[in-house]
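step 3/5: co-fold with zinc ion
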Amino acid sequence: MPAAKSRPFLFEAATGLKKLVRDHPEDEPALRLLAQAEEALCNYSAARRLLEQCMSLLGRRDKHDLKWLARLREMEDKYLLSPALLKGLAVDLERTLPAAGCAHTFQRTEDWLRRKGIQDLARRLDSLRRHFSDVCDCDLLEKIIVELDLDRRP
Ligand SMILES: [Zn+2]
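step 4/5: write tokens
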């Protein structure tokens, strides 16, 4: 997480770069800078997509970029499993599950990921499932409650 004081500047830089790449979508150096700004702002999915764009524009995959890509993917997964985000999922599952009852699928979790604007749903869902070795929404909710030591619904 960047120092709180630097965030507005980074945000400003990202906004300016976004405008630039909107007009010049093939400007690889600008895309690359924007990817760096997005990473610093913890927008890992956006950063990864931008880097992938750079790599396809360059038409090659150099070692440095591949390492960066791997790091961004790892951060995307970690971010998804961050306590704040998991707590949000647990709160949402608690709210939506009882009414409908668990269909013993990942439908509610998937809906939540989609509402959060999280990209690559299949891959994200897969990393959640791997982490919790869970079988469905209600099972996942139980495991998040245990992992985060959250208060159970009365
Ligand atoms: Zn279930």
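step 5/5: annotate
The chain has two domains: 4-75, 83-148.
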